[in-house]
Amino acid sequence: METKPIEISSSKMFGGYNKRFKHFSPTLGCSMTFHIYFPPLPSPSHKFPVLYWLSGLACTDENFIIKSGAQRVASSEGIALVASDTSPRGLNVEGEADGWDFGVGAGFYLNATQEKWKNWRMYDYLVKELPKVLSENFAQLDTSRASISGHSMGGHGALTIYLKNLDKYKSVSAFAPIVNPINCPWGQKAFTNYLGGNKADWEEYDATCLISKFNDVSATILIDQGEDDKFLHDQLLPHKFEEACRNAKVPLLLRLQPGYDHSYYFIATFIDHHIRHHSQALNMCFKPLHP
Questions:
Q1: What does UniProt list as catalytic (predicted)?
Q2: Is 46 a catalytic residue?
Q3: Beta-strand relationship, 6-13 and 16-25
Q4: Which of 26, 100, 135, 149 is deepest in the core (most CB within 10 A)?
């Protein structure tokens, strides 16, 4: 089984390349695909900082790369985009494809503790395995300079991974994230099946719960939320996270965008702001410090 990534497609875009790779993941016990957008290389020895993108329910590693238009600004800012898949695939676990909001395409970026779903370890895949794969196989990437972003379920993943690994990521942003999954139907269904009935275990993957424990945040958290998003009031609950950030004195910029829904039309509209938000944080270490 080939753990070294094999390139399976390549398309030029804004002077750089979208490349898709396949590799076997020991963490997940299956083959996985991921995309990298490499900006134009200014010199042979140049290394790009990395922005990880986590997609939402029922998505693959392709949605963001095809629909967001993020490559335009990533190219000009010199940031590599890494888009992973949303769950293990091809394991044929009973019930894995019974619903679009659980199982295949719905890994919730956690490490499952229930035996049936033991391969659903997207948290370890993204925090430990994938960065190692990138640093060992792509000399153009500087994985020590990384930020993270995502949409919906992926926004939940970005926020929770960032908060629990503040030493690994320079910044975080999200579009319409599930910020309080222990109190919404999507989260309750996923956590019950992946983590069991102990609610304390659920809180380890809930951004609104985590913010009080992991609040040494250096860069402002950026969240865009469409006001016409049909999931706003029962699934996403951004004001719960806003209140928790205020109580923990964590800098949050929550922008409610009138008329926008939950789709990639919304993401494409504001993705440039997010890329530049991360660019500022990722390039801080190259700027001289003044007293």
A1: 152 (charge relay system), 229 (charge relay system), 262 (charge relay system)
A2: no
A3: antiparallel
A4: 149
